[in-house]
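Z., the sequence and structure:
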Amino acid sequence: MEPNLNQDRRQAHALLDMLPAEKLNAVRSLLEVMVEPLSRSLALAPVEEEDITPETAAALDRARASLARGEGIPHEEILREFGLSQ
């Protein structure tokens, strides 16, 4: 069964319309990140690779260790934070 993209888009728009301004900005930023690789490939722009600084590498190590200890944020909590819980 193929998803109904028009219905999905309408539902997504309806959810966006319900968000308060401060959460809408966060969702807009997330969408920009999600769309950026697509827009880059459409423009055939080369992907620039960044060197990871020692500080960033250390932060990534701390984050991975935190997740390994089970200290991540539950999905349901993130949904609540964005007002998307049911």
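Residues 21-43 form the longest helix (23 residues). DSSP finds four helices and no strands in the chain.

Let me know what you think.
H.
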